[in-house]
Amino acid sequence: MKKRSKLERGMSYKILLLVGIVVILLIGIGAAYIMMKSPSTTTSTTTSSPSSSATVSSSSAPSNNFYLLVFTQKGIVQAINPFTQTSNFLGFQHVVNISTSVPQQVYYWDEVPAGEMFNASYIVIPVNNGSVYIINPTTLKVVETLSVGKSVGFIGVAYSPNQQYVAIADGPSGVVEIINLKNLQVVWKDTFVSPTGKTYYPCDVRWTSNGEYLIVPMRFNNTVDLISASNGSVVKMVVASLGSQPYMVSPNMQGTMVAVEYAGNDSVGFYSLPNLQYMGMVQMPSGITPQRGVFTPNGQYYLEAPSNKNEVVVISTSNFQITQTISLPSINPQGLADIGITPGESYAYVVMHGSVSSGGMIVLINLQTLSVAYEVPLTTAPAFILPVSVSTATYLVDNVLLPPITGLHC
User: Fold this and answer.
1) Which H or E run includes 269?
2) Cα separation of 128 and 108, whole Å?
């Protein structure tokens, strides 16, 4: 066999060396490419960290995609844009002709489900002489009048979770009933009175979040009744101490808890749903009378709106202690008419009655900061609010309501 020369052997070594270097480079480049294409464990962990997620949540923009229909004590409805300081008042209409010389007023509560737009077939307006006006929401005309009671006093309306029914409670007559809004027929009606004929005075009515029950405080019977929404039978009840006078109720959005305002001892009690088991009691600060409240959407707090103070009392539902108070603008006489949760669940809206002569106010409370976000002064005395879509309000302003005027009083 012929031996290779030194030159040939040197060339072979160089070729092998060159091939080795190329292979090493190719392996390195391939590995680097694979690493670049693979997700980094460190980067992924940082992006999805709880602190990062919480920061995004806390800085999320509030939901302002709604307007308000404000119903005043003397039957005037106003369309309001609460998010502008220059043109809040969009238009008005006198939908119910109530004389200013009699005590009958549109004064008490008319509630849509918390966090929802009004989208029912009819607007149901209670007047505190026992009458209920059925209003066409596209024309704001009265299409029917119902007679629930005959005496002056509390009467309130609550829409079902699907807004296809309304529950009505009339204190002076003791009547609780449900109306089907498709045909305006009474589903059932019951009268809650003592054996001697004295009214138990159903002061309020609220639906549980699943629509299965009504929660009704019977003020002069000192009970809070859980009533079947399908047939009116009493399923459970809380028997309160004598003279405590359960006055108003508000369930949370989760359907697990209800708060009860007691007018007889100025306290708020908390009970489980649907079992009505006692959970806690909060005594109001001296001089404050509880009246109406609402749970925050996450259920962490209960916002109490007193009947005689321009402030909202914040109650923790974890330990049933007052954590703070939210001061509201000064309006006389002091006291709040209603409180609810706006569509999108960014705000609680507070209705301040004020007076017929000086007007009232709407205040939006930011639910992330629990502080006042918007104030809308009114020359009229408001009774209750229905949150509506911007398109609905715009239609009413363009086709039904009269243009804004100054000095409008109810």
Assistant:
1) strand 267-272
2) 7
Q: What is the 3-state secondary structure (H, E, C) of 87-138?
A: CCEEEEEECCCCCCCCCCCCCCCEECCCCCCCCCCCEEEEECCCEEEEECCC
60-77: string of b/e by CB count within 10 Å (b at 16+)?
eebebebbbbbbbbbbbb
Number of Cβ within a 10 Å radius of residue 261: 27
Cβ–Cβ < 8 Å for 354, 347 = no
- Contact between 131 and 359 under an 8 Å Cβ cutoff? The reply is no
Pull the structure tokens for residue 212: 């299965």
Residue located via tokens 């020369």: 5
- Answer for the pair 273, 224: CB distance below 8 angstroms, yes or no: no
- Give the residue among 75, 132, 134 at the shortest CA–CA distance from 100: 75
- Full-model pTM: 0.83
Distance of CA 400 to the CA centre of its chain: 27
Burial of 129 from C-beta contacts in 10 A (0-12 / 13-18 / 19+) = buried
Query: Is residue 115 packed enough to be buried (19+ CB in 10 Å), middle (13-18) or exposed (0-12)?
Result: middle
Tokens read off for 292: 């109406």
Give the model confidence (pLDDT) of 133-160 as tens digits. Answer: 999 999 999 999 999 999 999 999 999 9
pLDDT in tens, 73-117: 888 999 999 999 888 999 999 998 776 666 778 878 889 999 999
Q: Residue 110's closest CA among 73, 84, 142, 78? A: 73
Candidates 346, 337, 391; CA nearest to 115 is 346
